[in-house]
Design a protein that fits this description.
Layout lengths: L38 E7 L4 E7 L5 E3 L5 E2 L4 E6 L5 E6 L4 E7 L6 E9 L4 E6 L5 E6 L4 E7 L6 E3 L5 E2 L4 E6 L5 E6 L4 E7 L5 E3 L4 E2 L4 E6 L5 E6 L4 E7 L6 E3 L5 E2 L4 E6 L5 E6 L4 E7 L6 E3 L5 E2 L3 E6 L5 E6 L6 E5 L6 E3 L12 E4 L2
Antiparallel strand pairs: 1-2, 1-33, 2-3, 2-4, 5-6, 6-7, 7-8, 9-10, 10-11, 11-12, 11-13, 14-15, 15-16, 16-17, 16-18, 19-20, 20-21, 21-22, 21-23, 24-25, 25-26, 26-27, 26-28, 29-30, 30-31, 31-32
């Protein structure tokens, strides 16, 4: 029988049961802007089994969505918004399902569409093809990946032939290349990355041998231009960087890798143009920013980095490239930093309204 023990670390950070605290929100109380302004964001709250939603305007100000919070499944965790902006998918870790919510694009409210799609045991991470036609769910305790085709009109999920596909036991995170040809899975216990090719129908096939990384390898991200793959090694306090062959999917560690980070690197955010990488250093209470050489992949610490933030655990890039959003281990707010595209420097911005208890995952729409 597979144990229901929750691993101490997992992608998007499973923090249910931790108490939260933080300063008061610095947000506008005016009505939300029209649907054409800014974008929508949602956070999952496993301790209360609900989703809280916000609209973020062009200046980075948060406004709560009418009707929020919205009821969800048992222990909602990882989330993502469909590229069309019409659907939100939420992984429910305890009941082993994925919820589909329809998004009212005018106001941002959510309506769940039942029944929920079954997954493997303890779905802890999700990713989606850039066209929105395939959804991938990493099942931590069953060591598998569930793959679903997505109906573009309704958002409904249909599991593809052969799914779920076996992967590393206790895998904690994964990342899909922007073109959707390769999927990389990181396993902390084995300190390795496992590569898979992805067919047009979502069938996975192992591609090469596991690639060694640092101790406690935890978070993984792919450069938007498919040049590099980044792995945060939480126990080793390092960042591994690999050049990516977009034809074969092969990874080659760049010269000088792994590179030193702060203590306990636990999440990675890559800027939309790929020139900057940000690492959440939970142990040193900061975010380290690097500029990336587009040819060699060599990282250079950004001037003014690291940027202070108490116990950061999740970083998410604004789809427009203007902000970095962060969740922390102890705060009941979404933290925001404006991103200077010419220097990579982060500047503290507004916080979201309180979500009452600690959120564990964040999804931001276009």
């Amino acid at each position: 029988m597979i144990s229901r023990r929750v691993a101490p670390l997992c992608l998007l950070v499973w923090l249910a049961g931790l108490a939260g605290c933080g300063g008061g929100p610095s947000t506008s109380t005016t009505p939300p802007p029209s649907s054409g302004t800014g974008h929508l964001a949602y956070v999952s709250i496993p301790s209360g089994n609900f989703i809280t939603g916000f609209r973020i305007d062009g200046g980075g100000n948060f406004t709560s969505i009418v009707g929020s919070p919205f009821p969800a499944g048992d222990s909602p965790g990882a989330m993502l918004i469909h590229p069309s902006g019409q659907f939100l998918y939420v992984a429910n870790r305890i009941e082993d399902t994925v919820s589909l919510f329809k998004i009212d694009t005018n106001v941002g409210s959510l309506t769940e569409v039942l029944p929920r799609a079954p997954t493997g045991v303890t779905p802890n991470a999700m990713t989606m093809s850039s066209g929105g036609n395939l959804l991938f769910v990493l099942n931590q305790l069953s060591g598998s990946i569930s793959v679903y085709s997505v109906n573009s009109g309704s958002g409904a999920l249909t599991e593809v032939t052969g799914s779920p596909f076996a992967t590393a036991p206790e895998a904690v995170g994964f990342a899909l290349t922007p073109l959707g040809d390769f999927l990389y899975v990181v396993d902390s216990n084995l300190a390795s990355v496992f590569a898979y090719s992805v067919s047009s129908t979502g069938v996975l096939q192992a591609a090469g041998v596991p690639i060694p990384v640092g101790l406690g390898a935890f978070a993984i991200a792919v450069d938007p231009a498919e040049r590099f793959v980044y792995v945060a090694n939480t126990a080793a306090d390092t960042l591994s960087i690999f050049s990516l062959d977009s034809t074969s999917g092969a990874l080659t560690e760049v010269t000088g890798s792994p590179f030193a980070t702060g203590d306990g690197p636990i999440s990675i955010a890559v800027s939309t143009a790929g020139q900057y990488v940000y690492i959440a250093d939970q142990g040193t209470n900061d975010i380290t920013g690097y500029s990336i050489d587009p040819t060699t992949g060599f990282p250079t610490v950004i001037t003014g980095s690291p940027f202070s933030l108490n116990s950061p655990v999740v970083l998410v890039t604004d789809p427009n490239g203007n902000f970095i959003y962060a969740l922390t281990q102890r705060s009941v707010f979404v933290n925001e930093f404006s991103l200077d595209s010419s220097t990579g420097v982060l500047t503290v911005g507004p916080e979201s309204p309180s979500v009452i208890t600690v959120p564990v995952a964040l999804a931001v729409g276009k």
